[in-house]
Design goal:
Layout lengths: L2 H5 L5 H7 L37 H11 L12 E10 L19 E9 L14 E9 L2 E8 L12 H8 L15 H9 L4 H7 L14 E2 L4 E4 L5 E10 L8 H10 L3 H11 L5 E10 L25 E10 L4 H6 L12 E2 L4 H17 L80 H8 L3 H16 L4 H14 L1 H11 L31 E5 L6 H13 L3 E6 L4 E3 L5 E3 L2 E2 L10 E4 L3 H8 L2 H12 L4 E4 L2 H7 L15 E4 L2 E4 L4 H12 L15
Parallel strand pairs: 11-12, 11-16, 12-15, 16-17, 17-19
Antiparallel strand pairs: 1-2, 1-9, 2-3, 3-4, 5-7, 6-7, 6-10, 7-8, 8-9, 13-14, 18-19
Helix pairs in contact: 4-5, 5-13, 6-11, 12-14, 13-14, 15-19, 16-18
């Protein structure tokens, strides 16, 4: 491709390319060959009650296509959601990489991002405890670059040869195909207790990181150490970090299970709806850069995918931003058929000898050949690069190109030597490094420390995060039937933190370890979710109303939330309208019975004497409040609405009393009786921006 062609590429180029493949549902119904059809409800038959005739080509075509609609789902990352957008670098990175899209701040590079769960099938729920995939395809002017990562910066295993074993262990057990999309069963934990290298990753998976509130509030990591290469052929080790603008936030375990029943598409819907209403998700891309000369200066191996590079040792440098601003037109054609591959790189980005990365570079391509029906899957619209493609590959299943000319080989003289080899300034050049050694099956001793960073992670967490990890281990291991598997995991946990191991052991009915392994005491605060600032932008607030509601309070609250980009859903006892305290009608957004407390970030109860009486006698409304309190969510009540909180089975709280004219806050419950509604709204918004009230005491709240 010429320099002029490369420099003229725009963010809209991928959209223009896709436009040629879009088909709108308009005009007369036809067969796949264009023949118009006037009846698609009745097969051609011999009389009204006779047999169907084989000459009915429309019937045969319609059924044949239907019978072949499904393709094999991904073995892992089967359930996903995706969106289009763009990436834009802040400043040129020519010192480190020659990649064009990382050196032109004026260029908006089109992207497609696919988020996913790992273990479950396409039909599983969004909110299971699992790693989340975070895969980004950059449609760059030098070819497609795929950054295929997760929302957790480390992985379960060090060498890709173990990947089939790990996946087999976490998938439903083969004798009964149970459980779906869950790690709480014997085979996974049997694998873990026999593979200590899994312990760092299991600490992350048992943390709240495995329960993201939203794809839009989820970090992403490249996991591996990659390599930047500049125009002089000089290499720099690099780790990639995506940081969400909305902050990194999670659900709580009880909440995720209930959401799985109320709305199994919770995360999919959240991403789709946010983009549709113009609240575009945004992430900042950061890098950790390590000179080649510093490769061995750490107390772990930089090529070990079960280790992080602590930000205290190498800070993350922001280099650009990504915005997702368009939903796909068709889930199957785009989100399902997109094919990622860790080996899709462009000049200036290269690999390292990370053994897991090396395996992925084989596995991803091999997977697409069967899943997408042959070697031409890159020609599917969502996979097709915006860069010109000139190669000598021909034929095969799914060939969309109509190649002209008589040559399909190199070198040739019949086509003027085309396609010819690229020049030094445009071709991909593999990083040159000396590689030698004996052919052996042995992992480096530098990969053998499996506990230090697991302890580092645990030490870095807030008290509430540690409590959630202990509870998660107890839940998961409580599902394990074999006692020796439980004991084996506890023995590993004792190498992470003795108190954690004892707590888990007592919870699952095995003997706690007597000898404590010393905790090194080091921490890395950057891994804790307690350190991330928050915003109320795009948060969902449920406002509970009934007949007699004081509508002015609802309107003022909705306006205040809208100013900060938050959304208020007014929930009534029925669809339609409720009567206000002045006798007029007020429209509700949804009937309370059609949604649930777990689908919202906070609850508000406005005033109105009749409103309070009705809600106080409504078990569903009281359950909304009780569940929200249990799940650490902000709750606010105004004037008579405070009386409703008093009827809910909550612990003793300092609520505003009759005659008070000020805002009271206790454990994230904000109340006011009097004229300071503005103060209540402000306090509520500030509390909502913290995401959850994690220090709230919930022991006395009924399950």
């Amino acid at each position: 491709m010429s320099e002029t062609r490369r420099d003229s590429a725009t963010k809209d180029e991928k959209d223009q390319q896709l436009e040629r493949h879009r088909v709108d549902a308009a005009g007369e119904l036809t067969t796949s060959t264009g023949t118009r059809v006037d009846d698609t409800d009745n097969s051609l038959s011999a009389g009204g009650r006779g047999p169907t005739l084989m000459e009915d080509f429309h019937f045969r075509e319609k059924l044949t296509h239907f019978d072949h609609e499904r393709i094999p789902e991904r073995v892992v990352h089967a359930r996903g959601a995706g969106a289009y957008g763009y990436f834009q670098v802040y400043e040129p990175l020519s010192r480190y990489t020659r990649a064009h899209f990382l050196n032109d701040p004026s260029l908006r590079t089109p992207v497609f991002v696919r988020f996913s769960t790992v273990a479950g099938s396409r039909g599983s729920a969004d909110t299971v405890r699992d790693v989340r995939g975070f895969a980004t395809k950059f449609y760059t002017q030098e070819g497609n670059y795929d950054l295929v990562g997760n929302n957790i910066p480390v992985f379960f295993i060090q060498d890709g040869i173990k990947f089939p074993d790990f996946v087999h262990s976490v998938k439903p057990e083969p004798h009964n195909e149970i459980p779906q999309a869950q790690s709480a069963h014997d085979t996974l934990w049997d694998f873990v207790q026999l593979q200590p290298e899994t312990m760092h990753m299991m600490m992350w998976v048992m943390s709240d990181r495995a329960l993201p509130r939203s794809y839009r509030m989820m970090q992403g990591f490249g996991v591996h150490t990659f390599r930047f290469v500049n125009a002089n052929g000089e290499g720099t080790f690099v780790k990639f970090h995506w940081t969400p603008k909305l902050g990194t936030h999670s659900l709580v375990w009880d909440e995720t299970q209930k959401i799985g029943g109320k709305d199994p598409d919770y995360n999919r819907r959240d991403l789709w709806d946010a983009i549709e209403r113009g609240q575009y998700p945004e992430w900042e891309l950061g890098v950790q850069l390590v000179p080649e000369s510093d490769e061995h200066r750490f107390d772990f191996d930089l090529l070990d995918p079960t280790k992080i590079l602590p930000e205290e040792q190498v800070p993350v440098t922001p280099i650009g931003r990504m915005v997702l601003n368009r939903n796909p037109d068709n889930f199957f054609a785009e989100t399902e058929q997109i094919a990622f591959h860790t080996a899709n790189v462009v000049p200036g980005i290269d690999f390292t000898n990370d053994p897991l990365l090396q395996a992925r570079n084989f596995s991803y391509l091999d997977t697409q050949l069967i899943r997408l029906g042959g070697p031409n899957f890159q020609q599917l619209p969502v996979n097709r690069p915006v860069a010109d493609v000139q190669d000598n590959q021909r034929d095969g299943y799914g060939q969309h190109y109509v190649h002209r000319g008589r040559t399909s080989y190199f070198k040739n003289s019949l086509a003027g030597g085309c396609p010819y080899l690229a020049g030094e300034d445009t071709a991909f050049k593999h990083y040159q490094e000396r590689v030698d050694g004996q052919k052996i099956r042995h992992r480096s001793d530098s990969f053998q420390d499996h506990y230090t960073q697991a302890t580092l992670f645990y030490n870095s967490l807030a008290n509430w995060e540690r409590a959630h990890i202990s509870a998660a281990f107890q839940f998961e291991l409580g599902k394990v039937e074999h006692r020796h598997v439980r004991e084996g995991v506890v023995a590993h946990l004792n190498h992470v933190d003795h108190d954690l191991a004892v707590d888990v052991a007592n919870g699952i009915g095995v003997d706690p370890p007597e000898r404590a392994v010393a905790n090194h005491g080091r921490s890395s605060p950057a891994v804790s979710q307690a350190t991330f600032p928050g915003t109320v932008y795009s948060r969902q607030v449920a406002v509970l109303v009934a007949d007699g509601v004081r509508a002015a309070e609802v309107t003022a609250l909705r306006s205040a939330l809208a100013e900060h980009g938050a959304l208020a859903d007014v929930l009534g006892p029925r669809d339609g309208t409720v009567r206000t305290d002045d006798g007029s009608n007020f429209e509700v957004d949804r009937a309370m019975s059609t949604v649930a407390s777990v689908l919202y970030d906070a609850i508000v109860v406005p005033g109105g004497a009749d409103n309070a009486t009705a809600l106080s006698g409504d078990g569903l409304a009281l359950n909304f409040i009780t569940e929200a309190f249990k799940h650490h969510k902000p709750i606010a009540a105004m004037n008579e609405g405070v009386d409703v909180l008093g009827r809910a089975p909550l612990p003793s709280l300092r609520l505003a009393n009759s005659g008070d004219d000020g805002v009271r806050t206790d454990q994230g419950v904000i109340t006011n009786r009097g004229s300071d509604d503005q103060g209540l709204r402000q306090t509520f918004i500030e509390t909502l921006a913290r995401h959850r009230v994690w220090d709230r005491e919930v022991a006395s709240v009924p399950a």
